[in-house]
Structures are given as C-alpha cells and as structure tokens.
C-alpha cells in the first residue's frame, strides 16, 4: 500500500470511526504500512536519521493523517461532491 492509496483508504474507512487526529495516528500504528515504513524507510521517503530521531514514526504518521484529512475536507466541500 502506498501513501497515496492509504489516503483513499483512510478517507473511506475512518469516516465516523476515528474522531480526531490522535486516534487516527494511533490507528495507523496498527497498519501494514507502518510496519513497512519501519522496515524499509527509504522507500517511503524517510531517512534513517529521521527513523533514529523518531523510532515510532509518530511525526510521519501524523503528517499522513493530516494530509488525508485535508484531502477529505476538500472533497467534502467540493460543490460537485454530491
């Protein structure tokens, strides 16, 4: 699963399930993407230094969640959405 396909997945499955960013960041820590990001960080644009500085990748997970939330908000507020 790529980060961009994760955005679509987050938007479709988290609506109503997760109520805030912190819950979404925690939810993402149970994903296969999280396991892969830790195992092979360079593929996901994460340097080994970033992994050393933030071994749980909380900042990266938060960035993914916030980006997905912004995209979802943009789609929802698009006049052609409905």
CATH fold node name = Arc Repressor Mutant, subunit A
Order of helices and strands: HHHHH
Task: Describe the largest sheet.
Answer: none
Q: Which architecture per CATH?
A: Orthogonal Bundle
Low-confidence stretches: none
Q: Roughly what fraction of the amino acids lie in strands?
A: under 5%
Say how many strands there are. Answer: 0
Q: Give the overall shape, derived from the CA principal axes.
A: elongated
Task: Give the helix tally.
Answer: 5
Mean pLDDT across the residues is 83
Helix/strand/pairing category: mainly alpha
Radius of gyration: 13 Å
- Could you name the CATH class? Mainly Alpha
Name its key features:
82 residues, mainly alpha, Arc Repressor Mutant, subunit A, 0% strand, elongated
Describe the structure in your own words.
The structure is a single chain. This protein is 63% helix and 0% strand. It has 82 residues and is mainly alpha-helical. It has a single domain, classed as Arc Repressor Mutant, subunit A. Helix 1 packs across helix 5 and helix 2 packs across helix 5. The model has no long low-confidence stretch (mean pLDDT 83).
Sequence-ordered SSE layout with sheet pairings:
Elements: H1 3-13, H2 21-28, H3 32-39, H4 48-53, H5 58-76
Helix pairs in contact: 1-5, 2-5
Overview in brief:
This protein has 82 residues and is an all-alpha fold.
């Amino acid at each position: 699963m790529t980060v961009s396909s994760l955005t679509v997945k987050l938007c479709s499955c988290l609506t109503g399930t997760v109520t805030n960013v912190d819950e979404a960041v925690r939810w993402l820590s149970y994903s296969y993407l999280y396991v892969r990001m830790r195992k092979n960080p360079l593929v996901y644009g994460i340097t080994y230094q970033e992994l050393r500085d933030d071994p749980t990748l909380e900042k990266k997970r938060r960035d993914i969640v916030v980006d997905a939330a912004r995209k979802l908000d943009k789609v929802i507020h698009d006049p052609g959405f409905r």
